[in-house]
């Protein structure tokens, strides 16, 4: 079965103080669609046909990895945000405080890591073991799953994710992103 563009769980115009409808139309409707279309072309007639994006990300290399991982990363990213402000569930909050001293310190470290993520890529909050959380930057299509870690939260720091709205002000984009994190989704990813 071919991969298809997932529906957003919110309207593209739901984030006027964060990401514009125009950015969503390019980012989700065109950019992600291209990764999905290319992945479909690359898996057709190959040993990867019928496998999930996650299975492909874990075992592929080269152009297939790049496109499948970018499709997976983008789908995950769009689930990491919500137009409604969310409280952090208690168990996740306790785990963040255990690993980063406070939620505010976590946010500061996450933003600083993402600002310092050179070039194009992703910044992740991931689970590295029982009760262990870590912030990690990946370049290009990188994904912490390939290193055996569990992604909990990601932010896209490729310029296409924010440039129409924030131009070169990546830090402002990241501060706004933290206001719209879907903490319920983040908590649901804990193992």
In short:
α5 runs antiparallel to α7 (170-178). Helices cover 48% and strands 13% of the residues.
Classify the secondary structure makeup into a structural class. alpha+beta
Strand order of the largest sheet: 2-1-3
Unreliable runs: none
How many β strands by DSSP?
A: 3
What is the percent of helical residues? 40-55%
First-to-last CA distance: 28 Å
Order of helices and strands: HHHHHEEEHHH
Number of helices: 8
Strand content: 5-15%
The Cα radius of gyration reads 16 Å
Describe the main β-sheet briefly. 3 strands, antiparallel
The backbone outline, from C-alpha atoms, is globular
- The average pLDDT value, as a whole number, equals 96
Provide an overview of this structure.
There is one protein chain. The chain has 191 residues and is an alpha+beta fold. 48% of the residues lie in helices and 13% in strands. The chain contains 8 helices and 3 strands. A 3-stranded antiparallel beta sheet has the order 2-1-3, with helices on both faces. Helix 4 packs across helix 5. The protein is globular, with a radius of gyration of 16 Å. InterPro entries: Mn/Fe_SOD, Mn/Fe_SOD_BS, Mn/Fe_SOD_C, Mn/Fe_SOD_N, Mn/Fe_SOD_N_sf, SOD_C_sf.
Topology:
Layout lengths: L20 H23 L9 H7 L2 H18 L10 H11 L2 H13 L5 E9 L2 E8 L10 E7 L6 H4 L3 H9 L4 H6 L3
Antiparallel strand pairs: 1-2, 1-3
Helix pairs in contact: 1-3, 2-3, 4-5, 5-7
């Amino acid at each position: 079965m071919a991969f298809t563009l997932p529906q957003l769980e919110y309207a593209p115009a739901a984030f006027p103080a964060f990401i514009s409808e125009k950015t969503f139309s390019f980012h989700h409707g065109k950019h992600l669609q291209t990764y999905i279309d290319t992945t479909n072309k690359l898996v057709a007639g190959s040993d990867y046909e019928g496998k999930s994006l996650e299975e492909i990300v874990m075992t592929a290399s080269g152009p297939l990895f790049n496109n499948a991982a970018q499709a997976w990363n983008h789908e995950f990213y769009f689930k990491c945000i919500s137009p409604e402000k969310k409280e952090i569930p208690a168990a996740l909050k306790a785990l963040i405080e255990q690993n980063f001293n406070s939620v505010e310190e976590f946010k500061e470290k996450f933003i600083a890591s993402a600002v310092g993520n050179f070039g194009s890529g992703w910044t992740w909050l991931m689970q590295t073991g029982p009760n262990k959380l870590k912030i990690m930057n990946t370049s290009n299509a990188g994904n912490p799953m390939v290193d055996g870690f569990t992604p909990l939260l990601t932010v896209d720091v490729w310029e296409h994710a924010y440039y129409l709205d924030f131009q070169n002000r990546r830090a402002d984009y990241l501060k706004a992103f933290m206001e719209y994190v879907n903490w319920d989704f983040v908590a649901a990813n804990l193992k």
